[in-house]
Amino acid sequence: SSDLIPRTLAESGAGIAVPPDNEVDFISALQILISDGNKRVAMGALGRTWVERHASASAVAKRYEAIYLDNR
User: Fold this and answer.
1) Are 13 and 43 in contact (CB under 8 A)?
2) How far does CA 3 lie from the centroid of its chain?
3) Where would you tag: which of 2, 15, 26, 28 has the fewest CB atoms within 10 A of its CB?
4) pLDDT tens digits, 20-67
5) What is the CA radius of gyration of the chain?
6) Contacts of 49 (CB under 8 A, 6+ apart)
């Protein structure tokens, strides 16, 4: 299985990754998110920042441009 999503969440601070079929960790993550409004808000802001830097139209265009320029 890929570690892309857990790694992205860890690097961005935008969420909590839980292994598949691990009910204990899933419940623990939910309890953290339910009980800590500040953490939810912070994760949301970090997620938005990550998307703006890595997945926005301008960020993707820059990556395509770099690939194009490297392969001319």
Assistant:
1) yes
2) 12
3) 2
4) 999 999 999 999 999 999 999 999 999 999 999 998 999 999 999 999
5) 16
6) 12
